[in-house]
What we know:
Pfam families: DUF3145. By secondary structure, this protein is of the alpha+beta class. It contains three helices and four strands.
Amino acid sequence: MLRFEVTEEPSPGQDGERFCFAPVLGLWHARTSANGDIVVNEDQLRALAVRARGGEAFAHGVDELLGAAWDDALEPFRRAGDGAPVTWLHRVG
Length: 93
């Protein structure tokens, strides 16, 4: 079963992006800021506030916007950390 996470680093004037895929969850995509945080825009928050019926539904919606389920599904496969080796598959410079 294929699982992956692809991150595009931000560049001057351009947000980064993050794509995650897990078999049961499907594909998730979000923009990322210069420091790697997920960017949730005003329209996404307004739509969530309109459709959420209570605090628990709002919290669940925020988790969906931030890709929490994909993080949980992919975490066991991550091996990065300070000093961990990095393998570049393709780098455009």
